[in-house]
Amino acid sequence: MPNGASPDSGNAGGSGGLYGSLLQLLATLLALLHNRIELFSVELEEEKIRVLRVLAWGAAAFLLLGMGMASLAALIAVALWAEHRVLALGLITLMFVAAGVAALRVAARWVSAPSGLFAASLAELRRDRDELTGS
Question: Looking at the 3D structure of the chain, how many domains does it have?
Answer without folding.
Answer: 1
